[in-house]
Design goal:
InterPro entries: 2Fe-2S-bd_N (IPR042204), 2Fe-2S_ferredoxin-like_sf (IPR036010). The protein is mainly β. 8% of the residues lie in helices and 31% in strands. The protein binds FE2/S2 (inorganic) cluster.
Length: 85
């Protein structure tokens, strides 16, 4: 299947998480923290820490370690978080 990551079309396999696709591309961060702008990526890998938030198909705060990619998904880097602190 094909997905788009920050505007670049890439190959992805069925059953991969968004985080797996990003890591395979060599990305170690895909979000910045709300106030300090520090880079974040995968940390716990089990859906608990919310460090891996990313925008998928225009929806922010998607946990990349939990979301399986779908054909045609549009994955975007997220700046900060939409979640309340
Ligand atoms: S890496 Fe912790 S929630 Fe995704």
């Amino acid at each position: 299947m094909r997905v788009t990551v920050d505007g670049v079309e890439v190959e992805a396999a069925s059953g991969q998480t968004v985080a797996a696709v990003l890591l395979r591309l060599g990305r170690v961060s895909w979000r910045t923290t709300r106030e300090a702008g520090r880079p974040r990526g995968i940390f716990c890998g089990i859906g608990v820490c919310h460090d891996c938030l990313v925008v998928v198909n225009g929806v922010p705060d998607v946990r990349a370690c939990q979301r399986l990619v779908g054909d045609g998904d549009d994955v975007r880097t997220q700046h900060g978080a939409e979640l309340p602190s």
